[in-house]
Amino acid sequence: MKDLFIYLFFAGIAWLVWRAFTKKPTPSAPGSEPPSKEDKEARHLSNTLQFAKDQHRVLSKKQREQDAWQRQFGAAQAAELDQLSGVEFEEFLAGLFRAQGYAAELTPTSGDYGADLILSKDGQRIAVQGKRYMGSVGVAAVQEALSGMAYYQCHAAWVITTGAFTPNALELAEKSGVKMISRSEIGNLMAQHKAKTNNG
Questions:
Q1: Which of these, 18, 85, 94, 155, is most buried using a 10 Å CB contact count?
Q2: Burial class of residue 174 (count of CB atoms within 10 Å of its CB; 0-12, 13-18, 19+)
Q3: Are 62 and 98 in contact (CB under 8 A)?
Q4: pLDDT tens readout for residues 89-109
Q5: What is the number of other CB atoms lying within 10 angstroms of the CB of residue 4?
Q6: 81 to each of 12, 74, 87, 133, 148, how far by Cα in Å?
Q7: pLDDT tens digits, residue range 54-87?
Q8: Among candidate residues 103, 96, 116, 117, the one with its CA nearest the CA of residue 62
Q9: Domain boundaries, given as residue ranges, for the chain
């Protein structure tokens, strides 16, 4: 009986060794094997190419927008702004500030919560209330800019007009930190843009 036990013991070990050497490897589940160095490099190259394509598409779109703005408004004089509609004036401002290095986003033409334009630069967002206006812009424009700043979670608010500002509007702007940009300052920005375009 003891001999039988020894025989079975050694037979069992031999069977286990034979199984270990003849067993086919179980196919691993997809994705469970670590990717090879070549796979990682191919994926990195693919991601880099996709990023480059996306950047090219974004930059091309920005360039087309700026070219269209340049054709429409690039040669305009400050006096010609009086001929623009309200929407055209907002588009003009967007292009003018893009040329100054800002990202510019127009808000909906109705229900804009007080901001016609959102400018972004260096991590700062600015709510802009644009007034293509012949006369003097009053307190309401400052209040609208402040409302737009709150709604669009901006860091600052500006009012930009082709006209002038009433004393009350200027007082409220000073107390609330709203920047007021008048016709002459728009003219200066236009002149800077023209000089840069001519030198470039």
A1: 94
A2: exposed
A3: yes
A4: 999 999 999 988 999 999 998
A5: 8
A6: 97, 12, 12, 9, 24
A7: 776 766 666 665 555 555 554 456 667 888 888 9
A8: 103
A9: 66-199
* CATH no. for 66-199: 3.40.1350.10
Tokens, residue 70: 């340049």
Q: Which stretches of the chain are assigned E, i.e. beta strand?
A: 103-106, 117-121, 124-131, 136-137, 156-161, 164-165, 179-181
The Cα 166–Cα 157 span in angstroms is: 18
In angstroms, rounded to a whole number, what is the distance separating the alpha carbons of residues 85 and 186?
16
For tokens 């037979």, name the residue.
Answer: 11
pLDDT value at residue 23: 55
How many CA within 13 A on the CB side of residue 96?
A: 25
